[in-house]
C-alpha cells in the first residue's frame, strides 16, 4: 500500500520542481561560507556600508571586518548548523572564518549562538571582554557584554580568561567581570526566555526550520547528487522562497535548542505534512516577520510561542545530540497546543515509538 502513496507524493514534488525554475537558477544557490549575512533588519552596517535586505545571502563578514547594529538585528551563518544572532546596539568582529577554525569577537552589546550541528573537527570560539569561549556541543549560548556574563542555556562550553578556566554546562553561567572568580553557577533559564533576543532567535530558528522542510522536500522529490539540484550533503542551502539560507543535515533529523526539527532529504517525509502545502512547496515567497500571521496564507510548519498550529516541538526530557526521531517528538494537526511525549502523534491519531538517537547533546525546551 505504501508504494502508490510514495509514487503519488513523488509525482507531486516533480510537478512542483518543474513549476519553480527559480530554485535551480538562483544566483545565491551556492553554499554559504562562514560569515555570510542571512538576515538583517533595522540599522545594521559593516564599516561604512549600511545593510538592507539586498545584502542577504551575498555579503560576507570577512576577517578583520566588524558588523554593528543600532536599532536593528542581524543573523550571520558560521559553520553549517551554527547561527550567530546579533542584538540591538551591538558589534561583532570576524577573526577567522575557516570551517575548522571559526572565531568571532563580541566587541559590544549582546549576541546569541545557536548550535544545531557540530563536529569534533570544528573549533568554534567566541571572544568577549578578554575571555575566549569554545563551543563544545549542540546548544544555545548567550554572550552578554552589557551584564558581563556568558550563559549556556543548553550545551557545553570551555571558557579561558587569562590563567583561569571554567567548563560551563547547560543551565549555568559565568561572570566575565574583572576581579570576579571564573566559576560556573546555575541561573534561572526561564527568567531570560522572555528577553527580546531570545524570543527573536527562537522565531528565526522556527522560520528557518520551515525553510528546511521546504528545501529538503524539493531535494527529496528530485533526487540527490549532481544529477539533481545540487544536493551534496550537510551544508547551508539557499531557499529562494524564503529568501534565506537554511541548514540541511546529511542524514537524520537534527533538533535546534528551541525544539525545531531540521530534516535531511532522507527523512523529510516524516515532517508534518498538511495538504498541498506540505514539504517541498514553493509557489510564493515567504517573508520573515516577528508575527507569524504575516507569513501569508496556508498552514505553516511552525508557529510562535508554546502553542503550535501544525508545528513540531521536542519538549522537556527528550535528548539526542545527533539525529533523533522518536521519543519526545510531537506534531499537532490542528490549532491546539502540542506537548512532548513518546513517539509521534499526528492530530491525535497514530502513535509511533522507537526511532533512532544520536549521541549526547541537549534537552529541548
Write a short abstract of this structure.
With 365 residues, the protein is of the alpha+beta class. It folds into 2 domains: 36-191, Jelly Rolls, CATH 2.60.120; 206-352, no CATH class. 13% of the residues lie in helices and 32% in strands.
Shape: globular
Q: Count the domains.
A: 2
Task: Write the CATH architecture name of the largest domain.
Answer: Sandwich
What is the ordering of alpha helices and beta strands?
HHEEEEEEEEEEEEEEEHEEEEEEEE
What distinguishing features does this structure have?
15-stranded mixed β-sheet; alpha+beta; two-stranded antiparallel sheet; 23 strands; Jelly Rolls; disordered C terminus; 3 helices; 365 residues; disordered N terminus; single chain; 2 domains
Structural description of this entry:
- This protein has two domains: 36-191, Jelly Rolls (Sandwich), CATH 2.60.120; 206-352, no CATH class.
- Helices cover 13% and strands 32% of the residues.
- The chain is built from three helices and 23 strands.
- The protein has helices spanning 2-18, 22-25, 196-222, and strands spanning 36-46, 49-51, 66-77, 82-86, 91-97, 102-108, 110-115, 124-128, 131-135, 139-144, 149-154, 156-161, 164-169, 172-175, 185-186, 235-239, 244-248, 253-255, 261-263, 312-314, 329-331, 344-345, 351-352.
- The strands form five sheets. The protein has a 15-stranded mixed β-sheet that branches. A two-stranded antiparallel ribbon has the order 16-17.
- Helix 1 (2-18) packs across helix 3 (196-222).
- The protein is globular and about 60 Å long.
- The two termini are 37 Å apart.
Fold topology:
Blueprint (H helix, E strand, L loop, with lengths): L1 H17 L3 H4 L10 E11 L2 E3 L14 E12 L4 E5 L4 E7 L4 E7 L1 E6 L8 E5 L2 E5 L3 E6 L4 E6 L1 E6 L2 E6 L2 E4 L9 E2 L9 H27 L12 E5 L4 E5 L4 E3 L5 E3 L48 E3 L14 E3 L12 E2 L5 E2 L13
Parallel strand pairs: 6-8
Antiparallel strand pairs: 1-2, 1-3, 3-4, 3-5, 4-7, 5-6, 7-10, 8-9, 9-12, 10-11, 11-14, 12-13, 14-15, 16-17, 18-19, 20-21, 22-23
